[in-house]
Amino acid sequence: MVKKGSGFRCGECGYEPAKWVGRCPECQAWGTIEERGDARPPIARVAAGAPSAPARPIAEVDVEAARARHTGVSELDRVLGGGLVPGAVVLLAGEPGVGKSTLLLEVAYQWAVGGTAGPSLYVTGEESAGQVRLRAERTGNLNRGMYLAAESDLSAILGHVDAVKPGVLIVDSVQTMSSPQVDGAPGGVTQVRAVTAGLVALAKERGLPIVLVGHVTKDGSVAGPRVLEHLVDVVLQFEGDRHSTLRMLRGVKNRFGAADEIGCFELVEDGIVGVPDPSGLFMNTGADPVPGTAITVAVEGKRPLLGEVQALVSKSHMPQPRRAVSGLDSARVNMVLAVLEKRAGVKLSEMDVYAATVGGMKITEPAIDLALVLAVVSSAEDVALSSRLVTVGEVGLAGEIRRVSGTGRRIAEAARLGFTHALVPPDSGKLPDGIRVLEVSNVGLALAAARKA
């Protein structure tokens, strides 16, 4: 029997239904409705209290203590907006095995090598101290300024902080930690919320930057209650394909900088290294041009990256031709193929078409449509395009080439890497010098210009 006056609340989004249900009507999460006990009393009038510090004009507030400090990992600093801000709490999420712990071990090492902001404290709840020590030895991340503790209790972590007095605290992971003051198993909604709230309070009280490792669910979102992302200051997503050494660090939320920056890393035998110029990873380094390839420029966050789109068109021996896609949006590829057959007269109804990107790069933005068009036609005609040609543009259903955002930045990146010709949509604005730019308004003109380039 439910006590009179009791209420229910969703631990994921905070919605309060009138009765218990298995699935939250607001966020559609299963098993998150919990009984709150007695209903909350009506809001009472609050008496004025003594402020902890007097209010001051904003121009008189000291900002030097809140300046970001470099972590020593340049690609991470790029995403963070300059480094770790004292008192900031950063949540790093990613799939198992993507390299989160390896990256943060590098951060702890570089912080300790700097030595100006105190030692680094790495707390692990998933491995023993010996296992982490072996990984640090393998990757060459050993320094006397690095402190390591294997704990899963929040109060023990606070004790280590008092003893070590670190300049940065890394907790791997928040789902393995528990607070003795609340009930529930580690990793549950109640425990994750309590542990995160405790660490956030610690960070704000002592001006200590804290980096938390978070697991992700099957759909790629951060595991745990949604309020977890609201409690922290920065949310980073670490992504990568298991079959590729490339790793992308994306900013999802950032209170201290841009939230659309990305950092590029490469997993090597002795750890993880930043890739300041990753465009070469996404292109074929062969000297001779090959039919069925086209170069384009994608934008990840604010970063232009050159990538290669490849296509293979061959005679089909099946009643229904195959369409295989890797690294591209399959629905968009099928749309571009239909436009080619209808507007440009390229017969593909009896041909197998395979389209892919190079280096494990995933491109879903429409700006690569024109490169896909040229790659498919190049493969169908068995004629290679110029290796110094780059293309940018969205293809519409009428066969027109539409403008895309950041065309100037894209072409400037291509010019920097030595490309001499570019095909762009009409009215693309002011474009950089040093590269010959030709504006094309439809697919037919683009194909004719590419054949002459």
From TrEMBL:
The family this protein is said to belong to: Belongs to the RecA family. RadA subfamily.
Q: Which PROSITE patterns match?
A: RECA_2 (PS50162)
Reply yes or no: does the keyword Zinc apply. Answer: yes
Enumerate the residue ranges of region (Lon-protease-like). Answer: 352-453
Name listed for the protein in its UniProt record? DNA repair protein RadA
From what organism does this protein derive?
Amycolatopsis minnesotensis
Concerning Pfam families, the annotation shows: AAA_25, Zn_ribbon_LapB
Sorted alphabetically, the keyword list is: ATP-binding, DNA damage, DNA repair, DNA-binding, Hydrolase, Metal-binding, Nucleotide-binding, Stress response, Zinc, Zinc-finger
So what does this one do? DNA-dependent ATPase involved in processing of recombination intermediates, plays a role in repairing DNA breaks. Stimulates the branch migration of RecA-mediated strand transfer reactions, allowing the 3' invading strand to extend heteroduplex DNA faster. Binds ssDNA in the presence of ADP but not other nucleotides, has ATPase activity that is stimulated by ssDNA and various branched DNA structures, but inhibited by SSB. Does not have RecA's homology-searching function.
Gene, per the UniProt record: radA
Give the RecA family profile domain ranges. Answer: 65-216
